[in-house]
Specification:
The mean pLDDT is 92. This protein is 25% helix and 20% strand. It folds into two domains: 131 residues, N-terminal domain of MutM-like DNA repair proteins (Alpha-Beta Barrel), CATH 3.20.190.10; 126 residues, Helicase, Ruva Protein, domain 3 (Orthogonal Bundle), CATH 1.10.8.50. The chain has seven helices and ten strands. A four-stranded antiparallel β-sheet has the order 1-6-7-5. Strands 2-3-4-8 form a four-stranded antiparallel β-sheet, covered by helices on one side. It is an alpha+beta fold and 283 residues long. The protein binds a DNA duplex (16 and 16 nucleotides) through helix 6. Keywords: DNA damage, DNA repair, DNA-binding, Glycosidase, Hydrolase, Lyase, Metal-binding, Multifunctional enzyme, Zinc, Zinc-finger.
Length: 283
DNA sequence: ACCAGCTCCTGCTTGC
DNA sequence: TGCAAGCAGGAGCTGG
């Protein structure tokens, strides 16, 4: 669910509560996430100091002082929220936990960070930091869309010869890492490219133009604190508000916002997932 | 290698 | 109103 802008927003929001702080206790209430959360992993987390918070694609990375990194994936419905202690009283002694609060990080300064995930598509894994890039979740990821490795030549080469619709190609994390359904739909509309068009049959000029458009789309979403449709919240519980500026996503039947277009946003299904687009101005 | 479809899970919305 | 089907932001796996 959360795509790159949402995960990055959460990362930034968690920093004050977690960076440089020690996890006094990692409490696991439900270990059966997408992958099991073993007791031994919770024990290794308890007492560890978090040196820095990073992100790779949609994965949140907690770099620990012990040479290990906790990989956190929010799946479709996961949240990481900070709850502060109030009036010197430890919050975890007073605040009732909510349904689907699966993992609680009790921080040494009294705040706690709660991982909540109704659908349990989210998961965590603790791995050696020096072998992080080889981890099976991260090894095959393509370049970061906001980084230097994602450039026009890369995208042209990645699309070459591919017979899959461009919508599917941009969702392929090996081509570019961090886009999901929302931002692919939005970027393709900005680019005026039909989501149905085969990736390998788009003029190179148009593929190249897609690169800065993807960056701008993600940048705009980041500025808005991400998109809150259902479950997503920032680390302090605030909503994102990029959903108010969606051009196509979840706007089926609404008029296209492009000047002089006059089209109507339509919803189609590609690879079993909704795609929103304007048939008039996306070709 | 590539690609479409299925799957995991819960909860909200929609339609009868 | 009640109930069941459909759908949801991810992504690994299977099989053609």
């Amino acid at each position: 669910m959360p795509e790159l802008p949402e995960v990055e927003t959460v990362r930034r929001g968690l920093e004050p509560a977690m960076a440089g702080r020690t996890i006094a206790l990692a409490e696991v209430r439900r270990p059966d996430l997408r992958w099991p959360f073993p007791d031994a992993m919770a024990e290794r987390l308890s007492g560890a100091r978090i040196d820095a918070l990073g992100r790779r694609s949609k994965y949140l990375l907690l770099h620990l002082d012990r040479g290990e990194t906790l990989i956190v994936h929010l799946g479709m419905s996961g949240r990481m929220q900070v709850e502060h202690q109030k009036l010197g009283v430890f919050h975890h002694e007073t605040a009732p936990l909510a349904q689907h609060d699966h993992v609680i990080f009790h921080m040494d300064h009294g705040s706690r960070v709660v991982f909540n995930d109704p659908r349990r598509f989210g998961a965590m894994d603790l791995v050696a930091t020096d072998r992080l890039d080889d981890h099976w979740l991260l090894a095959k990821l393509g370049p970061e869309p906001l980084g230097n490795a994602f450039d026009e030549d890369h995208l042209v080469a990645a699309f070459a010869g591919r017979n899959t619709p461009v919508k599917s190609a941009l969702l392929d994390q090996r081509i570019v890492a961090g886009l999901g359904n929302i931002y692919v739909c939005e970027a393709l509309h900005r680019a005026g490219i039909s989501p149905r068009r085969k990736a390998g049959r788009i003029a190179a000029r148009r593929v190249r133009a897609l690169v800065p458009i993807i960056r701008d789309t993600l940048g705009d979403a980041l500025e808005a604190g991400g998109s809150s449709l259902r479950d997503y919240r920032q680390a302090d519980g605030a909503l994102g508000y990029f959903q108010h500026t969606f051009r196509v996503y979840d706007r089926e039947g609404s008029p296209c916002v492009t000047d002089r277009c006059g089209g109507t946003i339509s919803r189609i299904v590609q690879s079993g997932r909704s795609t929103f687009h304007c048939p008039q101005c996306q070709r």
